[in-house]
Specification:
alpha/beta, 264 residues, two-stranded antiparallel ribbon
């Protein structure tokens, strides 16, 4: 079955990489595993062998039908023919929590990750995910580095990020033009922004990073989603214990939380 470029499909074919991902997922006998985008099923057999229950979410109609046929007669394995970008836990055939594993399409990896963290609260035990290397680097980036940005802050505010290992292009068919990396996300028992309105927190983050080359104060002042009151912003920055002359990518996750609280 040919890969569909429209769905960003690059099928994993390297058995040694498959074994490393399955091992890294840490699946236990009582777990319910959710695999996103199983494709041709490279990871599927290994995950099904370890888990109590297995659910896969596959957007490709033909691949979903093929997997459903493969699982016929197995009452512990399920195929959900749907889009992981919009799929909610309530639509799955078994209740959570879930251990999520995925070789994510390069073009939507970050968006699927944010969907899981924002819309599956308390439902994800861990998520072992493969991304384009640049996206993986952004997830784990620390302040004052080029990769650190809004995605870094939002993800790290809700999960611990553990980079695991790189995967070369030759591990896939068709062979992509980019490197890949496997990352494990461990959702926090309580997000770092607990007690704040998440939508407000996200608005502050995106507003602050929309002009990342400017100072924090100027970037916030230019963000049309916040406030035009520069004095209020200056006071909030000071209350949060930050330096308005720093650039947005120098501010830690804790700093962004403190700033959101100060802005009210």
């Amino acid at each position: 079955m040919r890969a569909k470029r429209s769905l960003g499909q690059n099928f994993l074919v390297d058995e040694s990489v498959v074994d490393r991902i399955v091992s890294a997922a840490g699946v236990r006998a009582g777990d319910t595993v959710v695999e996103i985008g199983p494709g041709r099923g490279a990871l599927t057999a290994g995950l099904r062998a370890l888990a109590r229950n297995y659910i896969c979410i596959e957007k490709d109609d033909a691949l979903a039908a093929q997997l459903a046929e493969q699982f016929a007669g197995d009452d512990s394995s399920f195929v959900v023919n749907d889009d992981a970008l919009t799929m909610m836990p309530s639509g799955l055939p078994l209740p959570g929590p879930y251990r999520v594993v995925a070789n994510l399409p390069y073009n939507v990896g970050g968006r699927i990750t944010m969907h899981l963290l924002e819309n599956w609260p308390g439902q994800v035990t861990s998520a072992t995910l493969m991304f384009q290397r640049e996206v993986a680097d952004r997830l784990a980036a620390v302040p004052s580095t080029k990769a650190y940005g809004a995605l870094s802050v939002l993800v790290q505010s809700m999960a611990e990020v553990w980079p695991l290992f790189g995967v070369p292009p030759g591990a896939f068919r068709p062979v992509p033009k980019v490197q890949s990396r496997v990352v494990r996300l461990q959702p926090r028992a309580e997000p770092l922004w607990a007690g704040l309105d998440y939508e407000r927190f996200r608005t502050v983050i995106h507003g602050g990073f929309q002009s990342r080359r400017k100072t924090l104060l100027n970037s916030l002042a230019n963000a049309t989603t916040l406030t035009n009151d520069v004095d209020l912003i200056r006071a909030a920055v000071a209350e949060a214990g930050l330096d308005g002359g720093d650039r947005p990518d120098h501010i830690s996750v804790a700093g962004w939380v403190a700033l959101t609280r100060a802005l009210g």
